[in-house]
Please model this.
Amino acid sequence: MLILRRLIHRDLFPILYALIGMFLVGDLRVLTASLQALARFFFLLQALGGFLFLVWLLRSGKLAVTQPGTTKRFSYALRIVARIGLIVFPVAILANVLGYINLGNLLGICYIRSVFLAAMLYVVIRVLEGLIIVLLQVRPLAALRGVQLHREMLHRRTCGVLEFLAFLFWLNLMLNFFGLRNPLLQRLGEALNANVAIGSLSVSLGRILGFALAVWASFLVSKFLRFLLEEDVYQHFRLERGLPYAISTMLHYSILLVGFFVALGALGIDLTKITILAGAFSVGVGFGLQNVINNFVSA
Model:
């Protein structure tokens, strides 16, 4: 409990206390599952308490974007989750009262479980965020000039990647809980393997996505390597004027060329049969590099 209080801002403590309270009531509901009337009472208590807390939370201004304990994106996410709960809890309570116990339990328990899982992932992200801050402030990363100049940007983007991965993990577990993960993956696989005719070429949607991802990845790799060169490597050498720009540009075109051929392979095209296309692409790259070399020589 003390560790959790250290990981989150004090303005989020009411959410922590509410989650703990709902967890305890949920345990009582599970322990009394054999007594249907008592189990229904604890479920109604849990759902009603959750509904009243969400009403108070939205009215109290705890989820305001200007609060120091929340970022703009995190605050919006909390407000969306709270508003969903304002719909789910009343429906679950009404279903339970009218005798549709299984439906009420499904709605209420699924919502509560998804919130619990999201809260645990949030704590994990905060722990990893602390580790990232430490790693960016100690050697060897702290000695890099790129880290010194762009520490905040690197921290923000790394946390963004962690949040995206956490969302995928949460979505995977929730789909598995509902029994939808395997059917969804099966349907998705069928859709990706479906052939699409583009003129005389017949490819699948999955291959087209693979082509797009390979091209996108080549741009990301090129951008990352040029960032390292410009922020750290070039600073340790006395290079002639214009040479760093020429090296970065040639590296950029080289990576794009490799990424282009990888993308063609992902598309299912036989690389041994595209020598003419490769020649045309090489000529285009040559014309692009010609200006670079001319600028370097004139400098």
Q: What stands out?
A: Residues 65-70 have pLDDT under 50 and may be disordered. The longest helix spans residues 101-135. The chain has eleven helices and two strands.
